[in-house]
Amino acid sequence: MADLAGLIEQAVTGLGYELVDFETSPRARLLRVFIDRPAAAEETRSAVTVDDCAAVSNHLTRLFQVENIDYDRLEVSSPGMDRPLKKPADYQRFAGQDVQLKLRIPEGTQRNFSGAIVGLAEDRVRIATEGGEREFAFDNIEKARLVPKF
Question: Taking Cα atoms as reference points, which of 96, 86, 129 lies closest to residue 110?
Fold first, then answer.
């Protein structure tokens, strides 16, 4: 499956998008691909459109045929307003925005934290919470999602 993720990332990046996340169902019958515009396109930022998803889907469908990847269904979509943060660079890119974190190993008795992203330094994510600034090892973050503002 790691080879498949690398193949998808290379294809999506080649089309000018960023691979945010990739999920498979049991036995890889359903493939879900979440794409976004790359950080370099922030100034001209526009949301991922249906046409963007269709272009990536068509490209991946052809690629999977060539590579003999067996699957039943492919879904390509934007990561949504509550975008997951997967890579260290995501914490730099979205600094200042609100995030919800879930830790693998609790700090004390707490596993869930929320606050504004301060940034990332030396593989440690910093967020400003109501109780002050907190720092977490990147490797200890199980899940992180942006908190949409309405």
Answer: 129
Tens digit of each residue's pLDDT (9 = 90 or more) over 7-20: 999 999 999 999 99
Q: Which residues of 10-41 are buried (b: 16+ CB within 10 A; e: fewer)?
A: ebbeeeebbbbebeeeeeeeebebbbbbeeee
Tell me which residue range forms the domain holding 119: 88-146
Separation in Å, CA 15 to CA 18, 20, 52, 123: 9, 14, 10, 29
* CATH of residue 94: 2.30.30.180
Same domain, 99 and 121: yes
Kindly give the parts of the chain with pLDDT less than 50.
none
